[in-house]
Amino acid sequence: MPNSRKRNTISRHKDRGHYDEKTIHEILDSGKICHVGITLEGQPFVIPMAYARQENALILHGAPNSRLLNQLANGLPACVTVTHLDGLVLARSTFHHSLNFRSVVAFGKARSVDDLQEKHAALVLLTEHLAPGRTKVARAATDAEAKATSVVRFEIEDASAKIRTGPPIDSPNDMKLEVWAGIIPVTTLEGEPMPAPDLAAGVVYS
Length: 206
Ligand SMILES: Cc1cc2nc3c(=O)[nH]c(=O)nc-3n(C[C@H](O)[C@H](O)[C@H](O)COP(=O)(O)OP(=O)(O)OC[C@H]3O[C@@H](n4cnc5c(N)ncnc54)[C@H](O)[C@@H]3O)c2cc1C
What we know:
By secondary structure, this protein is an alpha+beta fold.
């Protein structure tokens, strides 16, 4: 660290910062993708991945030849972020435009999940997080499939959450301007299921 501040201490807009596990876990649980940042030989890489939270850790998975997963399995320190965009905050001046958001920045290291039973449980957790109920209807992974998948458990050592809510904060001088101001809410919605083109007749979505 370049200074004595803790790595997860929010300095800008401290009032938007949260450090309690409940807030951090809620933000993590309402996301499906994270961005995993590592530094290799001085070069930063930030890679998007699917995840699921398991206790105070994140389960990540992928192909055994994933550079990122191999580095994480070797204990390389990483920084994982999760971001939700909740709204466009439109002010009377462009300067005061903003975004409503919830985000988490988490620091830690991962370990490889090699025990087959633990791996199956992690993969079920991941599938259920991404598509709830899916493990009740889809064929479970075989041992061979689990062995052909890399799974790591990223243990969160320190984390911070940052949340912005509410309307735009305009300058007093701009309050009389006849410019619309307010919030355009933004949500991520799952659409109607679209059957695979080769789906057998009569098989319905459940
Ligand atoms: C969707 C979205 C869009 C944003 N767009 C902008 C933008 O365009 N310009 C801009 O300046 N800022 C933007 N921010 C805020 C940005 O994430 C940073 O919080 C801000 O820029 C301050 O950066 P810093 O390095 O000075 O933070 P510092 O406060 O110095 O960071 C110190 C520590 O605080 C924590 N922290 C910082 N930011 C976050 C965060 N967002 N979530 C959780 N923990 C955090 C981390 O642990 C970090 O190590 C955006 C945030 C989100 C979620």
